[in-house]
């Protein structure tokens, strides 16, 4: 049993999508379309978001203030998405209102990953560890207390590729074997059908920004019970 509010919320959700607030996509294209963070958060809450991700990283037009603003708007557990490399950033994340923090395996030496996971847990934050390959799983301690997410895009090329959902499908058994209670697939999930396919494969959460910020109807995105009853694609 986990003591993580973030993990509990995802595991208990009818629509287990980590809905993301992201100002721009990787190509610099605006995703807000004139809406405020309050408009977006209200839409996400109405669609039953169990938790919300806030991109504070500059590549995507984010700032730490965006996290603070979203934290004032909602009680939902929040994930900070940025490039965390130092322990003091964990304290800051907590102070801004985060419940979980992104730790990106592709960008962190193994020793830093180990110490940041442990430090995050000690700070009361859930590590949201993002990987792109099986070898990166070796450096994740306390996996039973972490969300482990497969990034379908390549962070080293600043996510300018179109992504490969097959990566998530291939890595799910390794994630489960590593011991995370909450395997997540992140990035490049562009349609409700792709989302349903990943949930049917066994993912317990999906992290989506671009497609949700562009969708006309958040309620068209899958729910757990809808997915269970749908005929296999
Ligand atoms: O817009 P998408 O393709 O749905 O992707 C969301 C999310 O995975 C992406 O925003 C992301 C993945 N890793 C990051 C690291 C920092 C900031 C943002 C990210």
Automatic annotation (TrEMBL):
The keyword Repressor does not apply. Residues 6-219 form the Indole-3-glycerol phosphate synthase domain. Keywords: Amino-acid biosynthesis, Aromatic amino acid biosynthesis, Decarboxylase, Lyase, Tryptophan biosynthesis. GO terms for molecular function: indole-3-glycerol-phosphate synthase activity; phosphoribosylanthranilate isomerase activity. It comes from Streptomyces pristinaespiralis (strain ATCC 25486 / DSM 40338 / CBS 914.69 / JCM 4507 / KCC S-0507 / NBRC 13074 / NRRL 2958 / 5647). GO terms for biological process: L-tryptophan biosynthetic process. Its EC number is 4.1.1.48. It catalyses: 1-(2-carboxyphenylamino)-1-deoxy-D-ribulose 5-phosphate + H(+) = (1S,2R)-1-C-(indol-3-yl)glycerol 3-phosphate + CO2 + H2O. PANTHER family: INDOLE-3-GLYCEROL-PHOSPHATE SYNTHASE, TRYPTOPHAN BIOSYNTHESIS PROTEIN. This is indole-3-glycerol-phosphate synthase. Pathway: Amino-acid biosynthesis; L-tryptophan biosynthesis; L-tryptophan from chorismate: step 4/5. InterPro entries: Aldolase_TIM (IPR013785), Indole-3-glycerol_P_synth (IPR045186), Indole-3-glycerol_P_synth_dom (IPR013798), RibuloseP-bd_barrel (IPR011060).
